[in-house]
Amino acid sequence: MWTIPLLARGDFSEWRDAARALASAGISPREVDWRIKGDIELFEASTMPELPPPDAAAAPLVVPQAFLPLAEAVVCHTEPGRFHLLYRLLWRLQSDRRLLELTADKDVAWARLLAKNVARDSHKMTAFVRFKEIAGEAEGRRRFFAWFEPTHFVVARTAPFFRRRFADMDWIIATPKGTASWDGESLIADMRPGENPGHGDPTDALWRTYYASIFNPARLKTKAMQAEMPKKYWRNLPEASLIPELIANAEANVRAMAERAASDPPTFHYRLQEAAQAMPPANFAEAGTLEGLREEARRCTRCPLHCTATQTVFGEGRETATMMMVGEQPGDHEDLAGRPFVGPAGKVLDGVLKEAGLARETLYLTNAVKHFKYQPRGKRRIHEKPNRGEIDHCRWWLTKEIEFVKPKIIVALGATAFYALTGDRQPLSHVRSRPISMRDAVMEDNVVLYPTIHPSFLLRLPDEAERRRQRALFLEDIRDVGHLAKGFLG
Ligand code: URA
Predict the structure, then answer these.
(1) Among 227, 307, 320, 341, which one is most buried in terms of CB atoms within 10 A?
(2) Does the pTM of the predicted model rise above 0.70?
């Protein structure tokens, strides 16, 4: 009998290497005892036996393509018999290449069920991880921590989802079944159990507001809700504390909703805005600060875009910046993060700024329009250009930002920003790279307006050579404005 001790924390290579050696040596599943040593110290004490050399006369191991993803998922399950099951499948596949097609086969059906559980657990993780901001912003990147309790070892396989979704922030997701972290460059998965420092933060309140806003008592199906959001996850969901009360009041709320039917807001965003409106008034008028202005903007309802956007994305950066950059409108990432230029276009801009020797923190970055405009397409939100009316309504905020920051140079990134700043609808190609005195425009005089392309223009160019050429021109423009700014600073 061969006893094979495994750490069994979802690392596929651990099982694969042992299984390969055993099968190549002709050791049948009945001769193998797969043991799980979840505890690292115990594991270190019981090491892998020296496996026999491969049988030179045996045919090389072959498995159908479908086996690999199936086995990779199954090893992430917590079922203790999973390694034995996989080895039995591997063994049987050597004489029956089409085994996996037999969906009624007991081993195949079991493996598929385990893989399905793992996929479901991974999906739950993408839905129920709640980040909390932690102190210590590093190089302009905010830092977040999340504690989550998955059923299976899904951290490593789910981490790439969070890297794609939250590429612009540093984060750690700790779980009792491993930890994943991302710092903008490396995604690291550590199989050892993580720790929960257990603290709440203001984001918890935001989650609660959000949840209360999207909760629809008329659609309440308690059983389905618990299947979708199983109770075991509630402990780490800030919004879960609301659930009992929301359920208890559901019936009365449905009646009230029916009475108000005609005026019900169309989406949760509208109600979220209402929650923002209900906040104590900001001291903008009194204090006259940019911070006050930002607070005011959170409840902006000047145009209908606030109904569908998640939140107002106000400008950010140095309040006394010599240079202000104005984009078009927040995109998908910005809408969720609540900050300008943190998505793909922001990455392009960051790269060019760096090459031009301009530090992002010394600038003030904002947009002509402060709410994300999009068309829903399936689960995706496709960017849509703001129209003239929307830009005209939002100009009020832009003008105020300029009044507060008093920049010497304003860079218009793209035609929308140029229109917002000048009221002029000329094609960008007619005005690009030519500094204009703002005396003739809507803003104060002695400010230089510098029109250039929007960084997302580069992302849309299909031809690599053209993209490189346009990027070089954009970099030249940004270097130009950098020189102008130095002139102002003396
Ligand atoms: N595009 C913009 O114009 N602004 C952003 O903030 C992001 C993308």
Answers:
(1) 341
(2) no
